TrEMBL record:
SUPFAM superfamilies membership: S-adenosyl-L-methionine-dependent methyltransferases (SSF53335)
Main EC class the enzyme belongs to: transferase
GO molecular function, one term: 16S rRNA (guanine(966)-N(2))-methyltransferase activity
Keyword Transferase assigned: yes
Gene name, Swiss-Prot/TrEMBL: rsmD
Listed name of the protein: 16S rRNA (Guanine(966)-N(2))-methyltransferase RsmD
InterPro entries: RNA_MeTrfase_RsmD, SAM-dependent_MTases_sf
Assigned EC number: 2.1.1.171
Keywords (A to Z) from UniProt: Methyltransferase, Transferase
Organism: Arthrobacter terricola
Lineage top rank: taxon: Bacteria
């Protein structure tokens, strides 16, 4: 069972998505990821966007650690229901509505987002079958909604190639954790 690792809601369990439609980020990877993000001062007061959210664990972890808001975007019906349950629990523990859930395809969500909507920290953990041109298209749309100094984290299989970054994003780091690889990028 996954849990919130640290922050105000640390230690609280998170509901998991039944079946194998999603691939949860392990607690080990999540702990290492958030340690790095804290070292970058990328969490406190951030507006977080968790794309392909699954259970919402990354966005909720950000909210627990001090993000101003966390938006979870998930198209799968069962996963978005789990996201909502986890968001409701986190909002109750946090004492205010910080986490919101959008049941939508990522591409549609980004197309509908107002031009003035900007995020500071974005997680993308797309399904492994998502091809590289589709991922690049999402990253291209996302780049228009990033605030200055934003951090984008893409999680993929360690066997996947590095994302084909659009000209508006530049990778500044990557790290492999067993079967998982994280790429960190920022707007240019």
């Amino acid at each position: 069972m996954s849990r919130i690792i640290a922050g105000v809601a640390g230690g609280n369990p998170l509901a998991s998505v039944p079946g194998n439609a999603t691939r949860p980020t392990t607690d080990r990877v999540k702990e290492a990821l958030f340690s790095r993000l804290e070292a970058l001062d990328a969490i406190d007061g951030a507006r977080v966007l968790d794309l392909y959210a699954g259970s919402g664990s990354l966005g909720i972890e950000g909210a627990s650690r001090g993000a101003r808001t966390a938006e979870l975007v998930e198209s799968d019906a069962r996963a978005s229901e789990v996201c909502q349950r986890n968001a409701d629990m986190a909002n109750q523990v946090l004492g205010h509505r910080t986490v919101s859930v959008h049941r939508s395809k990522v591409e549609s969500f980004l197309e509908r987002a107002a031009d003035s909507v900007l995020w500071d920290l974005v997680f993308l953990d797309p399904p492994y079958p998502l091809d590289e041109p589709s991922l690049k298209a999402v990253l291209t749309k996302l780049a228009f909604h990033l605030d200055e100094g934003a951090v984008v984290v893409v999680e993929r299989s360690s066997r996947s190639p590095e994302p084909d970054w659009p000209d508006t994003l530049e990778r500044f780091a990557d790290k492999k954790y067993g079967e998982t690889k994280l790429w960190f990028a920022e707007p240019v």
